[in-house]
């Protein structure tokens, strides 16, 4: 069968297509069709010729199979050091073989590549720190995902997520009306406790444009209220856009580069329209990576920088604390042992570890580092889209053992994790392994301990 009703090489581009696709609960029919999906060998060969550039070719040819990347991978450690989980083996047996065969592969091989690319790698890029040749298997797996997506071999949930971005410019089915209504609702919910607080919409020339993860308006609207409260306390001039508010990119996880470009362009268009001085990205690692690190290249910006200076939320908090815009009441600092999970996408890939440590020094009396830490920290186990893929749930749960052991070694019961995917993974880690921990974003913790400026009114509940 060349292509199926659900599993095919066509992107999801309309609401009707999304609706039809989601009737296939759990992707049962989708994966059944995938087993018969024929590889378009000429197209795959042509894509390799077009897109496989010197860097990837050099990395594939340079890798000596020395295995020094093995212990860098949490999948390798969590799976009893299975040699098939060594990063170099995983990439050479998939992308390396695909290149060696010049795209002349069959359906079974492409499904194997899919299972490895999404089920055995989160593209956390930790392996690159330890490769003596500077090879980054995470980048190569990202490239492999793009090849697989173009041929229709992509996990069911990732195809849905990519389609959401194409249709809604968000990872979930949230319309502009839904977003505006949610902001207005949260403003109303907060006004009794914080008179004068607002969530400004489409204000031009604000100091800050604030962009979020679609999970917030969909599932955690209180996060919007918390962000508004902290901006209010800090006296910031800020706004949210009515369109272009979503920072995340499941399209990036899926390897759908066209949808990734469309997504980031929606954010950049909001910046062009409202002309803020800076952008602040909510507590989400991959959102920051997609829009700040990868996004400019998808959008064709030659200097590789977004249209305005952009801060991850930890950078804004650290700055607000340093400048005195936010002040911590010493009596309200966290007294219990607390640890901090370093997100791969804004710590390892963006170098924001020091900002995170400055925050912890201000808010915690007994801060306990994980081992290893900072850019050497292990992935939570849920990155790269793995959290949401049912086909690889057991692989993810097994991989989380490394993060479980890191947390247990600190003795802390509270884990701070300013990233949505990491927050979800650590929540699920507790559900699976029941180690007795709590987990939190920064915003709700900060609200409990910041000093309310004298000129602002706060009505205690």
Write up this protein:
By secondary structure, the chain is mainly alpha-helical. The chain has 3 domains: 39-154, Fumarate Reductase Iron-sulfur Protein, Chain B, domain 2, CATH 1.10.1060; 165-323, no CATH class; 330-449, Rossmann fold (3-Layer(aba) Sandwich), CATH 3.40.50. 51% of the residues lie in helices and 5% in strands. It has helices spanning 15-21, 28-34, 41-51, 54-62, 74-78, 87-100, 107-119, 127-130, 137-151, 156-168, 176-191, 215-219, 222-234, 250-254, 257-274, 285-298, 313-323, 344-348, 353-363, 393-399, 401-410, 420-433, 442-449; strands at 208-211, 238-239, 278-281, 309-312, 338-340, 414-416, 438-440. The strands form 2 sheets. A 4-stranded parallel sheet has the order 2-1-3-4. Helix 11 packs across helix 13 (222-234). The longest helix is centred in the middle third of the chain and has 18 residues, at 257-274. The chain is globular.
Annotate the secondary structure layout.
Layout: H1 15-21, H2 28-34, H3 41-51, H4 54-62, H5 74-78, H6 87-100, H7 107-119, H8 127-130, H9 137-151, H10 156-168, H11 176-191, E1 208-211, H12 215-219, H13 222-234, E2 238-239, H14 250-254, H15 257-274, E3 278-281, H16 285-298, E4 309-312, H17 313-323, E5 338-340, H18 344-348, H19 353-363, H20 393-399, H21 401-410, E6 414-416, H22 420-433, E7 438-440, H23 442-449
Parallel strand pairs: 1-2, 1-3, 3-4, 5-6, 6-7
């Amino acid at each position: 069968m060349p292509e199926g009703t659900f599993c095919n090489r066509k992107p999801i581009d309309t609401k009707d297509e999304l609706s039809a696709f989601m009737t296939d609960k759990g992707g049962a029919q989708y994966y059944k069709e995938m087993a018969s999906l024929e590889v378009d060998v000429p197209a795959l060969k042509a894509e390799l010729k077009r897109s496989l550039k010197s860097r990837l070719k050099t990395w594939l040819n340079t890798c000596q199979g020395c295995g020094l990347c093995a212990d860098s991978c949490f999948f390798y450690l969590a799976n009893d050091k299975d040699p098939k989980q060594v990063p170099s083996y995983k990439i050479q047996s998939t992308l390396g073989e695909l290149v060696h065969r010049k795209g002349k592969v069959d359906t079974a091989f492409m499904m194997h590549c899919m299972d490895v690319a999404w089920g055995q790698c989160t593209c956390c890029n930790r392996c690159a720190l330890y490769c003596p040749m500077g090879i980054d298997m995470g980048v190569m797996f990202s490239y492999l995902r793009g090849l697989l997506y173009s041929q229709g071999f992509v996990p069911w949930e990732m195809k849905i997520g990519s389609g959401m971005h194409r249709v809604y410019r968000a990872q979930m089915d949230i319309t502009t009306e839904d977003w505006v209504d949610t902001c207005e609702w949260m403003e109303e919910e907060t006004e009794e406790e914080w008179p004068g607080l607002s969530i400004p919409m489409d204000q031009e020339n604000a100091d800050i444009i604030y962009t979020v993860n679609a999970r917030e308006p969909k599932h955690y609207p209180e996060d919007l209220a918390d962000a508004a409260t902290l901006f209010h306390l800090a006296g910031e001039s800020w706004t949210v856009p009515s369109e272009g508010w979503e920072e995340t990119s499941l399209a990036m996880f899926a390897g759908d580069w066209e949808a990734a470009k469309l997504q980031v362009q929606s954010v950049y268009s909001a910046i062009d329209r409202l002309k803020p001085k800076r952008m602040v990205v909510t507590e989400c690692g991959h959102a920051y990576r997609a829009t700040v690190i990868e996004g400019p290249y998808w959008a064709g910006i030659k200097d590789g920088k977004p249209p305005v200076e952009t801060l991850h939320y930890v950078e804004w908090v650290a700055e607000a604390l340093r400048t005195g815009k936010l002040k911590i009441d010493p009596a309200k600092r966290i007294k219990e042992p607390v640890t901090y999970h370093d997100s791969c996408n804004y710590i390892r890939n963006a170098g924001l570890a020091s900002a995170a440590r400055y925050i912890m020094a201000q808010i915690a009396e007994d801060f306990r580092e994980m081992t290893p830490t900072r850019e050497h920290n292990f992935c939570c186990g849920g990155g790269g889209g793995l959290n949401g893929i049912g086909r690889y749930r057991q692989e993810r749960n097994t991989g989380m053992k490394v993060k479980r052991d890191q947390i247990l070694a600190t003795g802390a019961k509270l884990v701070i994790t300013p990233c949505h995917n990491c927050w979800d993974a650590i929540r699920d880690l507790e559900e699976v392994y029941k180690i007795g921990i709590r987990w939190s974003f920064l915003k709700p913790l900060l609200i409990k301990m910041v000093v309310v400026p004298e000129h602002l009114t706060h009505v205690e509940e």
